[in-house]
Amino acid sequence: MITKALKNFNLRQIADSGQCFRMVPCDPNRSQTAYRVISGRHFLIVEQTGDEVTFHCPNDEFAFWEHYFDLKTDYDTYIRAIDPMDDYLSRAAAFGSGIRILNQDLWEMIITFIISQQKTIPAIRALVEALSEKYGTRNKIPPTVSGYYYAFPSPEELNRASLDDLLALKLGYRAKYIKRTCEDVCSGKLDLDRLMKLNYADSMEVLLSCYGIGVKVANCICLFGLHHIGAFPVDTWIKKILLREYAPKSCCTGHVPETRLCEALIEENFSKYPGFAGVLQQYIFFYERELSRKTLQDTSEIK
Length: 303
Description:
This protein is an alpha+beta fold and about 300 residues long. The strands form two sheets. A five-stranded antiparallel sheet has the order 1-5-4-3-2, with no helix packed on it. Helices cover about 50% and strands about 10% of the residues. The protein has helices at about 10-15, 60-70, 75-80, 85-95, 105-115, 120-135, 155-160, 165-170, 175-185, 190-195, 200-210, 215-225, 235-245, 260-270, 275-300; strands at about 1-5, 25, 35-40, 40-50, 50-55, 140, 150.
C-alpha cells in the first residue's frame, strides 16, 4: 500500500473521461472514492480522499501504476498554457482538471476502440469484460482482496476465437474487424513493437491502413494507447462543441467545405497547443458530457 499526495488527479474524472473501460467503482452504490483497475495482467484497488491517493498494490507494482496514471507529468502546465481569451476551454479545464491521459496497453486500446464504434460507454465496458472473461487468463486477485479477475486477452488468445464466436458476443460488424486485426498482429503484418516506436503522423498512417480503423478510432488509439497527447479525436461530442463554441467566431466558416470544417477549427483553435492538444480535448469532452448529464438529471427531477 502506497499513499501519495497528488495534484491535478481525480479518480472519478479519469474513470468517466471515456478513455478507459476497466476502471470501475469498487461499490457503485457508495461514494465513488475507490476504484478497481485492470490493465493487461495488472490489478489495482486505488482510493482517494482529497489530494491523498492510496494505491493498494505491492511495492514492486507501483512503478507500473505510476506510469499508467502518468504521475510524473505536471498537468498544471497544460492548464496554465490555455489562452485566457478562450473562456469555454478555460472553464472546461478548471472543471476537469483531475483528468490525466493514461498510459494504457496498446493492444487493448486497439481492440477497445474498434469496439467503441457506435457504442455507448456502458456497452463498451460490457463487451471488453465479455472478451476478457471468455478469452483472457483468469488471475487470483492479490491477497488483500478475495476473488479473481480476467486479464485482457493477448492477440494469440483472442485469435483463437472464430468470427462466429465473436459474433455470438454481439460485436456485430466489429467482429470482422477484430478477427482481421488478431490475424494481422499474430502474423506480424501489424507489428505492435514497431508501432510503439513511431511518431504521431507515422502511427496514424499505419493505423489507417488497418481494416476497420478510421480517423477517429486511429486518433483514439494514438492518444490512449500510444500516448501521443497531441492527437485530437473527433466524435459527436467534440463535433458539437467545435460547431457551437468555435465555428461562430471563426474565419473558417463559409470558406472551408463542411466536410473539413472541424479539421479547420481544430487547426485554428488548438494548433497553438503543440504536443498536448489531446489533453485539452479530454477536458472539453468530459465537461460537455457532465453538463449534458446534469441537464438530463435536472429535467428528470422537474418532471
